[in-house]
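User: Second chain of the day. Same drill as before.
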Amino acid sequence: MTNVGDQVGKSIVHGPVLGTAAVGGSALATGNSPAVPNVFHFAQMTEMLVQFFGPLWFQHGQLAVRYLKPLKQGEELTAKANIVSQSDHDTQRLELEIWCENSGGELLASGTASCLWSS
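Assistant: Same format as last time:
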């Protein structure tokens, strides 16, 4: 695995992924279908972090997210993160700024994440 310091400044992206929720009947026909549940945002951010950190994410990952705006049915969501620093307390831990946006670039959720880079 590469040096933890070499990761600072890198960006990671997951998506775009089409947002859908189980709806039916008149809601679909009238276009009044519900927003995609926020758990969809969280799942896409987590998938991106698992792809980047691998198994270490499950033992040492931390994620805190604030939901800002719902994703509409049929919109695309992209999860993104910037690795901003090494932890002051644990030099093997990377700290990230993380967010989701729709295809128009509107911010849907934002937060922070951290994980050990090597054990």
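The chain has three helices and five strands.

User: Great, on to the next one.
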